[in-house]
Amino acid sequence: MVNKAIRDLALYGVRCGLITKDDIPFVINRLLDEMHMDAYTEPTEEVETDLEKILHVLLEEACRKGIIPESIVYQDLFDTKLMGILTPFPREVIATFQKLHAKNPEKATDWYYTLSCDTDYIRRYRIQKDMRWKTMTKYGEMDITINLSKPEKDPKAIAAAKNMPQSGYPKCMLCRENEGYAGRVNHPARQNHRIIPLEIAGNHWFFQYSPYVYYNEHCIVFNGQHVPMKIDRNAFEKMFDFIDFLPHYFVGSNADLPIVGGSILSHDHFQGGRYTFAMEKAEIETQVVCAEFADVQMGIVKWPMSVIRISHADKTRLIDCADMILKKWRAYTDEEAFVFAETDGEAHNTITPIARKRNGNYELDLVLRNNITTKEHPLGVYHPHSHLHHIKKENIGLIEVMGLAVLPARLKEEMQLLHAAILSGADLEADEKIKSHAQWAKTFLQKYDTITEENLDSIIQEEIGLVFAEVLEDAGVYKRTEAGQAAFLRFLAHCGATI
User: Fold this and answer.
1) Is 65 helix (H, G, I), strand (E, B) or coil?
2) Residue 145, SS3 per DSSP
3) Is 201 helix (H, G, I), strand (E, B) or coil?
4) Pairing of the two strands 404-407 and 140-146
5) How high is the pLDDT of residue 148?
6) How far is 119 from 113, CA to CA, in rounded Å?
């Protein structure tokens, strides 16, 4: 079985174009070495083409031999090492991408994304486990996902990571030094990872795909230097440089402050991809004209968060306008609207920007953010409030801002238990795992005349999607009320814009 799996993995590499037939003996010998084998017999059985099944055989044998412990963390480190044997050198990947990009940027990303999947850097068989659905809300059709593709660390790996000495290499998960890195129990292996160099605002940057693929061709664009994120004029310039490089992609940035920012603020980066989010489909509901930038299309987007959309054929003109709005927002205080630029020397105002090209124009969505906290809302005033934490408690980052909920894996089991409890008529408060959902469920069940085994799952999914819309409303600085929108217009007036 092991000989067969080794042969099948080599043939998989040939089929995917990772290696050639001439490479097969060399690759088989490399795989034998990793499996602690010194001989190989050519198998006669039918070839297995499913990568997950092939790797499963090799992982089972590695565990049986004691090459690795029986732990998902060590198995991921080991199978990445095996896939690294099949993965072309960086220079080969870069050369192919650049050749394709010179002719057609879309064909270049098509090839590179397929490569990232074929090398198992993007584990397609895990991504397929994620739960995904859409929910229609008053703001459009939101994307809802329950993330099941990130494996849970087992106690053995957690203990090993705790006892490991701290390493400063690579400095973070985004540093270019991750390419080819063997990994450790507290840092993923990346032997099968390849990155594409590009020039952004005159500096060395890199482009890669996210291994977790929250949406189609989910990519990360990161600085070649380990420098912190900062939203400023230069950030807008960098985003549009990327849009010029890959005009069929969007690109956005998490905000640069805690609570309203992303999980990695220490390394300058953006996220992008080839996907149309609900926010992009949302229309401008209040058009405004800015005296200083009368030639720039500007307006408030019909969205639960506070979004200013600006558009112009000249990206420099658009960057000038965005920079003006950002600077005004950084320093803006409106006590009546509970907007404070700073308290006790701590800055609160920032922006989540998203850039794209649409109908020949450059377009930029500027989402106003504020990270102030109070005793009533210790996690943030403009953050999901406590009554929604049973669904979403985590920070609202770029992806959620655009209308895609990334919900915790715990919800899969909790919704199954809730489903069973509702149908059986059980006390929803009695089970600790679903107790937090009880009041929510009692409220939404009143909306439906008929609850059955057949329709309950879709009802629960629908209601989760509606909760996500509320989550975004909580994260919005200016509420969707008459008073909230009046306060929004006050800020735009401060920028010199009027209806």
Assistant:
1) helix
2) strand
3) coil
4) parallel
5) 87
6) 10
| pLDDT score for 68 | 97
CA nearest neighbour of 405 among 419, 385, 384: 384
Q: How far apart are CA 140 and CA 465, in angstroms?
A: 11
| Residues counted in the chain | 499
Q: Does this model's pTM top 0.70?
A: yes
- Token pair recorded at residue 20: 């050639």
User: Is residue 133 left, alpha or beta, with left meaning phi > 0 and alpha meaning psi from -120 to 50?
Assistant: beta
List Cβ neighbours of 246 (8 Å cut-off, separation of 6 or more): 105, 109, 207, 272
- CA 63 to chain CA mean position, Å: 32
Phi-psi category of residue 83: left, alpha or beta, with phi > 0 → left and psi -120 to 50 → alpha: alpha
CA distance 235 to 478: 24
Residue 469 parent element (H or E): helix 456-475
Judge whether residue 335 has pLDDT over 80: yes
Cα 256 to Cα 271: distance, rounded to the nearest angstrom: 14
d(CA 10, CA 41): 14
Q: Are 201 and 276 in contact (CB under 8 A)?
A: no
